[in-house]
C-alpha cells in the first residue's frame, strides 16, 4: 500500500525544505510506502530552487515536483496533484508548517482498520496543542462548518481543515471544480453525497501562523466558502 502526500505550495521558500524533512521523517505503518507530490502554483520567490535542491539531496525518496506556469490557486494545485497521485490513500499537507506530519498515522488508522473511507483531522476536537491566534477566524471556521453541516447533514467539527485523508479511488471519481480555497466546502459537499461513504474525524494539533508569517486566506475566501457550501449542496454541480 502507498500513501500519496500532496503539498500545494505558493511562495513558501522559508518552509518548503523543513516540511519535506518532516514529511520524509514520519514513520508510517510497516506495510505503507509514501510518495510526495509538490505542486508549486507559480511561486514568485525561491520555492522552486529550495524544493529542487532538497530533492537532489534526498536519495531514495519518491518526490515529484510539478510547477504551474501561471498562478491558479490552491484548489487548482490540488487538482493537479490528485491527477498525478498513484497511491492507495492521499493526504493534503500544506507547506506552511501549521499541520504536523507526525499525525498521519492518526488519520490513516481508521482507513487501515477498514472503518473509514475519508478521515478529517479536526483542530477543534480533542486535547492536542493549538497555537492561540485570531478569535474571528475561529468564529468564521465554526460558522462555515455549521452551515456546511446543515446542508450536508454531517456533524463535522472542522470542515475547513487542511488535513483530509482519502482513499484515492474516491477522489479520482469526483469531478472537482474549485480553483482556490473553495476546494474544502466543495469536496465535503461531494463526498457527503457518495452512497455508503464512511467519514471519520480525529483531533489534531495546530500551529497556525500570522499574516506577517505568510498566512494567505482572507475574508473574501470566507464569502467564497459560503457560496460554495450553498452552490455545491443545493444545486449539486
Automatic annotation (TrEMBL):
SUPFAM superfamilies hit by this protein: Nucleotide-diphospho-sugar transferases
The organism's place on the tree of life at top rank: Bacteria
Alphabetical UniProt keywords: Transferase
Glycosyltransferase 2-like domain residues: 4-174
Organism: Spirosoma fluviale
Pfam families recorded: Glycos_transf_2
Gene Ontology terms for molecular function: transferase activity
The name this protein goes by in its record: Glycosyltransferase involved in cell wall bisynthesis
Amino acid at each position: 500500500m502507498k500513501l500519496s502526500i500532496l503539498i500545494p505550495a505558493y511562495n513558501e521558500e522559508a518552509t518548503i525544505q523543513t516540511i519535506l524533512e518532516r514529511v520524509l521523517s514520519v514513520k508510517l505503518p510497516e506495510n505503507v510506502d509514501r510518495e510526495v507530490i509538490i505542486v508549486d502554483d507559480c511561486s514568485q520567490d525561491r520555492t522552486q530552487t529550495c524544493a529542487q535542491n532538497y530533492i537532489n539531496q534526498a536519495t531514495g525518496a519518491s518526490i515529484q515536483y510539478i510547477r504551474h506556469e501561471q498562478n491558479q490557486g490552491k484548489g487548482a494545485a490540488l487538482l493537479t496533484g490528485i491527477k498525478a497521485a498513484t497511491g492507495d490513500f492521499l493526504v493534503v499537507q500544506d507547506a506552511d508548517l501549521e499541520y504536523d506530519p507526525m499525525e498521519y498515522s492518526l488519520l490513516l488508522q481508521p482507513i487501515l482498520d477498514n472503518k473509514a473511507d475519508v478521515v478529517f483531522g479536526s483542530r477543534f476536537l480533542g486535547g492536542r496543542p493549538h497555537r492561540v491566534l485570531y478569535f474571528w477566524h475561529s468564529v468564521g471556521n465554526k460558522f462555515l462548518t455549521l452551515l456546511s453541516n446543515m446542508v450536508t447533514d454531517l456533524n463535522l467539527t472542522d470542515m475547513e481543515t487542511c488535513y483530509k485523508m482519502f482513499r484515492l479511488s474516491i477522489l479520482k471519481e469526483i469531478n472537482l471544480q474549485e480553483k482556490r480555497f473553495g476546494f474544502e466546502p466543495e469536496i465535503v459537499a461531494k463526498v457527503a453525497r457518495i452512497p455508503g461513504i464512511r467519514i471519520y474525524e480525529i483531533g489534531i494539533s495546530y500551529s497556525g501562523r500570522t499574516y506577517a508569517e505568510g498566512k494567505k486566506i482572507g475574508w473574501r475566501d470566507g464569502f467564497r466558502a459560503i457560496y460554495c457550501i450553498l452552490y455545491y449542496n443545493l444545486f449539486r454541480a
